[in-house]
Design brief:
The protein has seven helices and two strands; from the N terminus they run αααααββαα. By secondary structure, the protein is mainly alpha-helical.
Length: 174
């Protein structure tokens, strides 16, 4: 049986958001242990023209929340981008997780052949089939910002590895 749209999206988002929340815990502990100003860490970036750590976390949340809502054919809740602490970022991720659990899997599954309209910048919109949206736009964008947040934490010295990025994956030992 082929994997459904909901199976290909919601568990991916849940695992990544939980993993990112755990990375935030480690980053917060690292900042406290090293006596680093948390604001300095939260505003760190790899290049001057890229989003800082806080914005990367916000965008991970946005991609999961807005993307899943588009697939479900519903309007997502709006979140203000006003987080200034690890606790506030963790609360945003928790709120996103709760929202994802409220979505109708059957509505998401029905999105495969439905047109999804997305903003593409400059006030313009684009359209693609739900399966293309999930596989070629939503998941790559989600992973891009998830990976960048992870990389920023690792670059700052937080002791995290691949298992921290992968989170709790369903694995059966042989």
């Amino acid at each position: 049986m082929p994997q459904s749209m909901s199976q290909s999206s919601i568990p991916v988002f849940v695992t990544g958001l939980n993993a990112l929340s755990a990375v935030l815990d480690k980053a917060e502990a690292f900042v406290a242990a090293k006596k680093i100003d948390p604001t300095q860490f939260l505003h760190s970036r790899l290049a001057p023209d890229m989003f800082d750590f806080t914005r990367q976390v916000q965008v991970v949340s946005d991609q999961a929340r807005r993307g899943a809502a588009r697939l479900a054919g519903v309007e997502p809740p709006s979140y203000e981008d006003n987080e200034t602490s690890f606790a506030e970022l963790k609360a945003r991720l928790a709120k996103t997780l709760a929202y994802l659990k409220s979505l109708d899997a059957k509505a998401i599954d029905a999105a495969a052949d439905r047109d999804i309209t997305i903003p593409i910048g400059g006030g313009n919109t684009g359209r693609m089939k739900g399966s293309d949206y999930l596989n070629h736009y939503l998941l790559p964008n989600y992973y891009f910002h998830l990976t960048t947040a992870y990389d920023l934490a690792r670059h700052a010295g937080v002791q995290i590895g691949k298992r921290d990025f992968l989170g709790a994956i369903p694995l059966t030992r042989l």
